Write a sequence for this structure.
């Protein structure tokens, strides 16, 4: 399903995070000597986009979705994901993630994003009117105005390497 223009800013940020998840997956197992660079990049993405992104979802998208009974359990699950991911991001910022923790963080983040895209966003597009989606989009534009608008360039250590 094509993404409604009101949700495209969130989907674009999802693409940035998924790109990092793919690079972490391809680089795994992460060498101990490279772990600091990967944690720094994850922290940079969190500070530039993910923190603002999570807040926008929690203040704009999730309340709208919670008004639709079929999405209540999914929203609760996504909120729990946010809590878990924030704890993992804090560990990355403190440089205390192990290589295995970094890999599982990337897997959890990827699964979370796919859940939002495939279940929540597609579902909202089916049940909300164009007017409701437009209002949602305007609120999201305001909530995301301070987020970075570009994809970060990876460090030499964290560049995507050809699959082995």
């Amino acid at each position: 399903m094509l993404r409604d223009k009101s949700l495209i800013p969130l989907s674009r940020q999802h693409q940035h995070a998924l790109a990092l998840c793919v690079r972490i997956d391809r680089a795994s197992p992460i060498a101990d000597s490279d772990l600091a660079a990967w944690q720094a990049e994850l922290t940079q993405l969190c500070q530039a986009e993910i923190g603002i992104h999570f807040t926008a979802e929690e203040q704009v998208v999730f309340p709208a979705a919670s008004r639709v009974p079929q999405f209540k359990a999914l929203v609760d699950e996504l909120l729990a994901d946010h809590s878990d991911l924030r704890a993992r991001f804090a560990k990355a910022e403190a440089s205390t993630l192990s290589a295995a923790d970094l890999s599982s963080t990337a897997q959890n983040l990827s699964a979370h994003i796919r859940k939002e895209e495939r279940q929540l966003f597609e579902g909202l597009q089916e049940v909300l009117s164009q007017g409701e989606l437009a209002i949602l989009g305007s609120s999201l534009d305001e909530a995301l105005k301070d987020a970075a608008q570009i994809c970060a360039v990876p460090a030499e250590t964290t560049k995507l390497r050809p699959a082995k």
In short: The chain has a mean pLDDT of 93.
